[in-house]
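Service request form, structural biology core

Requester: graduate student, group of Dr. S.
Request type: structure prediction, single chain
Budget code: on file
Notes: please return the result as structure tokens.

Sequence provided:
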Amino acid sequence: MARFGLRSGLLALAGGLGATAVMAAAAAAHGPLASDLATTASHFQLFHALALALAALAPLPAWGHKAAACLFPIGTVCFAGGLYSLAWLGVSWGLIVPLGGALLILAWLAFAAAGLLSRFS
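Core staff response, request fulfilled:
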């Protein structure tokens, strides 16, 4: 039986985030849940699901995969989830959206650093 490792887990998580992003985009575009804010959230969620998949497949050092495993999903859930909550429930979670954005920025910086450092190791 195949071992379920970090890479497989990241790809599965990316797939789940991507699938729910498409569902959210459909809800944001049609019917009673139509919302520009939710559309923005679904775009960010989909882009960062792809980033997570790319990070899983990239030849990064282990710490690069671990940083992606933590920062991309948590940042995506905080950022997009906060926007969905505001758009569809009218509920603001305070600083959750800016916190999610900051985590996504850190994820991209960690991804860049891991890529640069892996090239020189």
